[in-house]
Amino acid sequence: MGTLELIREASKKQVLFTLHVHRQIDARNITIKEIFEALESPELVEDYPNDPRGHSCLILGFTKQGKPLHMVCAPRAGGLMVITVYQPSLLEWKLNYKSRRMA
């Protein structure tokens, strides 16, 4: 099973948010509703299969209003763990929000 399939299957079970995510949504004007909207059609940006804490990845999703969100997620047996969330900046990302700008 590919990474996106793992993300989709895990999110059907349960979506869990780290304390860091709760801090991010307060600080960055992101809502839980927007996170769920963005999870409806995730696109894989970066995959981290060898992360020492377990397989994780960076995904891109869009809210119903078209707002792009990046989320670092980790599919687990019990559900999807959302580790962090932020709105990608065009200063760091190209217009597709999937390619980093070179420094």
Description:
- There is one protein chain.
- The protein has 103 residues and is α+β, with helices and mostly antiparallel strands.
- It has one domain.
- It is built from 3 helices and 5 strands.
- It has helices at residues 3-13, 19-28, 32-39, and strands at residues 15-17, 43-48, 56-62, 68-76, 79-86.
- A 5-stranded mixed sheet has the order 1-5-4-3-2.
- A hairpin with a 2-residue loop joins strand 4 and strand 5.
- The longest helix is centred in the N-terminal third of the chain and has 11 residues, at 3-13.
- The radius of gyration is 13 Å and the shape is globular.
- The mean pLDDT is 94.
SSE map:
Elements: H1 3-13, E1 15-17, H2 19-28, H3 32-39, E2 43-48, E3 56-62, E4 68-76, E5 79-86
Parallel strand pairs: 1-5
Antiparallel strand pairs: 2-3, 3-4, 4-5
| Approximate strand percentage | 25-35%
| Cα end-to-end separation | 34 Å
> What do the pLDDT scores average to?
94
- Give the overall silhouette: globular
What's this model, at a glance?
The chain has helices at residues 3-13, 19-28, 32-39; strands at 15-17, 43-48, 56-62, 68-76, 79-86. By secondary structure, it is α+β, with helices and mostly antiparallel strands. The chain has a five-stranded mixed β-sheet.
